[in-house]
């Protein structure tokens, strides 16, 4: 087994615990892979306000809490995918996203869908580089040169747990499976 076969599993109480056969995030090869986050409070309860903006805010807050627990930052986001119920919610998602992540402009895909699990209106997943690299994902030059592999930093001061295991089993649940 080589060093690249090691996968760290991230678990923080600042985001809802997985309710299916998956983990909040994994770290491997200098990257953080965040599972789809629904707009569920960290204690597992549903939001008292089920409006689209409140749901988008909570889903992004969950993603950011896991990103931080993994030892990364919004400036290190590489790719974000948002699943939204109804294309009519796209402008509202853009407004919430821009307000919460004003300096992060990773590659992003918004996928309108007919419905999500439990009737939620938004789900978001992400891929990020680990913090600690000389240049962040947001600092990539316009010349198209790669920024290089991110450095391997330690998780953020006990903000979450990292469980290390060797690669094995699928460890993946379907997005939104709770």
Automatic annotation (TrEMBL):
GO terms for cellular component: cytosol. Pfam families: Ribonuc_L-PSP. Residues 139-178 are annotated as: Disordered. PANTHER family: 2-IMINOBUTANOATE/2-IMINOPROPANOATE DEAMINASE RIDA, PROTEIN HMF1-RELATED. Belongs to the RutC family. This is Reactive intermediate/imine deaminase. Residues 169-178 have a biased composition (Basic and acidic residues). It comes from the Bacteria. InterPro entries: RutC-like_sf, YjgF/YER057c/UK114. Gene3D superfamilies: RutC-like. The lineage of its organism: Bacteria, Pseudomonadati, Pseudomonadota, Alphaproteobacteria, Sphingomonadales. GO terms for molecular function: deaminase activity.
